[in-house]
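Colleagues,

For the teaching module next term, I've prepared a clean inverse folding example: a structure given as tokens, and then the sequence designed for it. I'd like students to try predicting residues themselves before seeing the answer, so please don't circulate the second half yet.
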């Protein structure tokens, strides 16, 4: 095992174990109750070559902690639903809220290790997903999560003895699976791969602790004590700080005026619009049928100025499809549940299954626009978000999804005219609020933020499309054609 990790070894007698447990349990529960008022979650990853021991340890932690404020997630072979989404989707889904503890049985390190050992990942693929794991842990840690990873280690002889013993026990024989014997048979090669995994994923913000699992009493006390110490240190503010993120760009950096280059004079006649709309919707319908048949998922992200026409454009897309094939996710101010997790959590959980379409009416880009301008995110948070967003979108494309992002651009004059029209139309009055006018007063700030957003997050795999939207009809046809062209490229490339 590598030298940088904490390695816990020892033995504890039954008498000593029983003497230590009451105080340890009290301290654990007290720390857990203090955690409930804190603004961060705790993620405990438990894995090892002793799978039975890992199960017993998880059961012990559930016994010693208050189960009302913790979750236990065991990640076995991915389900069909999980295989249809990016590799890390299921881990994001299980992300605990602030004030809660989540035990992750296995999780992403075991998933990567297993795929490497069974041949699904070559050396290059292994290195790639290790990097993805590093990114995941860093994102969660940057957002405040306390991450603790434990490897329960057994010597080869002891592992064999326990497997044989369990097989002979009628009450535990069902615990032993074929994979346990496969681990035993490939003990040496697996150990080398584990060492590589540890070296690359051990960090101050997501450390590994290697625990000798030979003695169950020692194992349980060692892990529980380390959890208690780390939790108390974080609550008291004495935990070592994680390395600082990359330096933010200079505040006076100037980005191209992408919005200023959009030609807002482009229009289309009503008759031509109706002809093209019918043609585009038919084309879109047929392409989405092909996408379903081939298992190609689509994520469309819509941003733009208030009254920019997002809703009307989205309806022209969905009107061409059966309701069962798509989902529109309207994004408003985050709920209390959403605020208590990483800002990307509420978007990860809505990702589509294979062949389906999800449309986001406002998106994760609120982090670098609204939250930036209105002061809901610190400068460190929104500067960090550019890379987090790029990583997020890359994972969608890696899974074979089509990702397209649209900014519906209108002039300030056109926006004011639409605001006035909404105020004068009774059934549209609910669409206009004081907040719309407050945002309008910050047009220059938002323009600068959007130009920076486009410069930093328009990528080959997930480009931004700046839509001339002063003419609503033109905007709708523009978007429909763009989506259809993107679908054709993806389908032809399969």
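(Answer key — instructors only)
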């Amino acid at each position: 095992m590598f030298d940088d990790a904490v390695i816990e070894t020892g033995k504890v007698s039954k008498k000593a174990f029983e003497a230590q447990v009451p105080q340890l349990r009290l301290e654990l529960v007290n720390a857990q109750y203090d955690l409930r008022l804190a603004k961060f979650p705790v993620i405990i990853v438990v894995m090892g070559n002793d799978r039975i021991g890992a199960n017993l340890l998880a059961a012990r932690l559930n016994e010693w902690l208050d189960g009302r404020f913790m979750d236990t997630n065991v990640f076995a072979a991915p389900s069909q639903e999980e295989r249809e989404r990016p590799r890390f989707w299921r881990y994001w889904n299980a992300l605990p809220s602030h004030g809660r503890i989540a035990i992750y049985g296995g999780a992403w390190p075991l998933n990567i290790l297993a795929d490497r050992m069974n041949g699904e990942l070559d050396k290059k693929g292994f290195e790639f997903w290790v990097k993805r794991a590093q990114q995941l842990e860093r994102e969660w840690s940057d957002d405040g999560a306390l991450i603790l990873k434990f490897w329960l280690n057994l010597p080869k002889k002891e592992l064999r003895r326990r497997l044989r013993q369990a097989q002979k026990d009628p009450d535990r024989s069902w615990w032993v699976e074929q994979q346990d014997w496969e681990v035993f048979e490939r003990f040496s090669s697996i150990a080398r791969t584990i060492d590589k995994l540890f070296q690359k994923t051990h960090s101050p913000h997501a450390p590994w602790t290697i625990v000798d699992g030979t003695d169950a009493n020692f194992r349980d006390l060692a892990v529980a004590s380390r959890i208690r110490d780390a939790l108390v240190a974080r609550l008291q503010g004495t935990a070592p700080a994680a390395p600082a993120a990359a330096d933010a760009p200079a505040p006076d950096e100037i980005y191209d005026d992408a919005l200023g280059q959009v030609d807002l004079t482009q229009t289309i006649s009503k008759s031509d619009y109706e002809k093209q709309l019918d043609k585009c919707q038919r084309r879109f319908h047929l392409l989405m049928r092909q996408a379903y048949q081939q298992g190609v998922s689509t994520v469309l992200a819509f941003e733009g100025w208030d009254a920019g026409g997002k809703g009307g454009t989205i309806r022209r897309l969905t009107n061409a499809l059966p309701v069962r094939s798509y989902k529109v996710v309207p994004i408003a101010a985050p709920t209390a549940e959403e605020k208590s997790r990483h800002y990307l959590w509420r978007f990860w959980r809505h990702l589509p299954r294979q062949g389906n379409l999800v449309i986001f009416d406002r998106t994760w880009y609120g982090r670098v626009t609204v939250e930036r301008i209105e002061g809901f995110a610190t400068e460190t948070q929104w500067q960090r978000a550019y890379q987090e967003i790029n990583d997020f979108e890359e994972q969608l494309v890696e899974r074979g999804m089509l990702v397209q992002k649209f900014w519906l651009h209108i002039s300030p004059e056109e926006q004011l005219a639409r605001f006035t029209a909404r105020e004068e139309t009774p059934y549209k009055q609910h669409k206009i609020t004081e907040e719309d006018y407050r945002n309008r007063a910050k047009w220059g700030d938002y323009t600068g933020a959007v130009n920076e957003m486009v410069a930093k997050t328009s990528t080959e795999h997930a480009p931004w499309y700046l839509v001339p939207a002063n003419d609503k009809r033109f905007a709708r046809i523009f978007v429909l054609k763009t989506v259809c062209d993107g679908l054709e490229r993806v389908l032809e490339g399969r």
